[in-house]
Amino acid sequence: VVLVSGHLDSWDVGQGAMDDGGGAFISWEALSLIKDLGLRPKRTLRLVLWTGEEQGGVGAKQYYELHKENISNFDIVMESDEGTFQPSGLGFAGSAEARGMVKEIMTLLQPINVTDVYDNADGTDIAYWMRDGVPGASLRNDINKYFWFHHSQGDTMTVQDPNQMNLCAAVWTVVSYVIADMEEMLPR
Q1: Domain coordinates in residue numbering, the chain
Q2: E strand or H helix at 181, and its extent?
Q3: Which has the minimum average pLDDT: 90-94, 124-128, 144-148?
Q4: Which residues form the catalytic set?
């Protein structure tokens, strides 16, 4: 399983378009693009639209409890929860060998200048999996404006830039598809 995700619940004073509608949207879009292109990877691509992230990650904990017996089947868990602004790369948590493979995958994104691999992945919703050794990835992007809108009434659709969201979806699509279509899973 290659899991892509974002969370649906928003902070109570805003619409949650950036936190985290954008992450949910690019995860949905990644799988939609792969399907529309007629691509069929070797492994399952799974979209999870988390709930309860803003209330302490209760949705993620429940999902983990229900699926942890199959942890060896999870290749990578990916979460976008820091906005969907101009992307720069991925945060990655995993073995050195897996990191090298992810760096190679990121070279495919050179045409859109999104190739960086940062030292760790963040994500309330994927933390349980990463703690137990499943490689994890989080979208990294220009967060200069993130806290202008984070948990505020300003977190509306007007914050979202369609071009930047398309670039974020491209990153999510390429990374998730390539990992799902590799001969072997990422090394733990």
Answers
A1: 2-181
A2: helix 162-181
A3: 144-148
A4: 53
